[in-house]
Amino acid sequence: MIGTDIYKAAELLRAGQLVAIPTETVYGLAGNALNEEAVAAIFAVKQRPTFDPLIVHVADMEGLEAYCRDIPADARRLAGVFMPGPLTLLLPKKDIIPDLVTAGSPLVALRMPAHPLAHALLFLLPFPLAAPSANPFGYISPTTAQHVADQLGDKIPYILDGGPCEVGLESTIVGWDETGHAVVYRKGGVAVEAIEALIGQVEVRLHSSSNPLAPGMLKSHYAPRVPMLLGDIRTLLQTHLNKRLAILSFSQFFPDVNPDFQIALSPKGDIREAARRLFGAMRYLDSLPVDYILAELLPEEDLGRAVNDRLRRAAAGGEWESGGEREN
């Protein structure tokens, strides 16, 4: 069932059930983060491997402090500017957080969602929410309630509808290494440049083939079922002349391809608009009767870096093409 009743959502969550919730990034599949049965149900519904840790959502700074042992000074600076918002901090966990949530890691990923419904819901609850994206594991993240209903609607009792997600990409995850230096483990809704402007240079460490330290680090992820080929679209069109093709471009349309089979993420070249539309566009193109989705990278700046990370991992699940690809 889809609705807007946060009290119904809270009642179900208090009973140990799962609810899909809106955030400014993507829709999350939420359960009581302190209840191991609810957490196990999240993994089961998503078919997510238990070695991939979850993000814990809290209402405010007091909630953040309740579930971690220490908050470095730079983490507090980031929280002061970007929380609530699309930022997750990877911090030493308190024992109250089950090991299942963190996949056995001593660190817990914590964030405060800025979406008004999610924020209000968290204030109604006496516990934080574990909430990975509300989609089958490895597939394109949902940015509307209908996306969730299409794939998980028969597996959960309620989807809290907060409209389309404003950011459309998962949160940026920042942690600290053993020397106290900041590390970006996942690019997302807060640009790396914005983080560096506040706390100085950071290391970017993104992929892990197994036992990832933070959520969203697996090399193959966010993947459509139709293979995605990433590179220069004109070159790819020439290479695959005899195939049924769909196109995902930054801003350009291609006159030789059916307009119903292509999406320009932002015809005006706005990177943030492109980020907001990415997952919905991927879902639409994945529904078409095509052999391949041809895609190109965005300029490697601002949220374009996070979009490119998602595109590279989506393509990693299928086939890669090298024509025209930019590197980090």
Description:
This protein has 328 residues and is an alpha/beta fold. It has 2 domains: 2-204, DHBP synthase (Alpha-Beta Complex), CATH 3.90.870.10; 228-316, Rossmann fold (3-Layer(aba) Sandwich). The protein contains 11 helices and 15 strands. The protein has helices spanning 6-14, 36-46, 61-66, 73-82, 99-102, 116-124, 145-152, 192-199, 233-239, 271-286, 304-316, and strands spanning 2-3, 19-21, 28-32, 55-57, 87-92, 107-111, 129-130, 158-160, 172-176, 182-186, 203-204, 228-230, 245-249, 262-264, 292-295. The strands form 2 sheets. An 11-stranded mixed beta sheet has the order 1-8-2-3-7-4-6-5-9-10-11, with helices on both faces. Strand 2 and strand 3 form a beta hairpin. Helix 1 (6-14) crosses helix 6. The model is unreliable at 318-328 (pLDDT under 50).
CATH architectural group of the largest domain: Alpha-Beta Complex
Estimate percent helicity. Answer: 25-40%
Secondary structure: number of strands: 15
**Number of DSSP helices?**
11
Q: H/E element string?
A: EHEEHEHHEHEHEHEEEHEEHEEHEH
Shape: globular
- Could you tell me how far the N terminus lies from the C terminus, measured between alpha carbons in angstroms? 42 Å
Class computed from helices, strands and strand pairing = alpha/beta
CATH names the topology of the largest domain as DHBP synthase
Q: Would you identify the regions where 5 or more consecutive residues have pLDDT less than 50? A: 318-328
Biggest β-sheet: count, sense, barrel?
11 strands, mixed
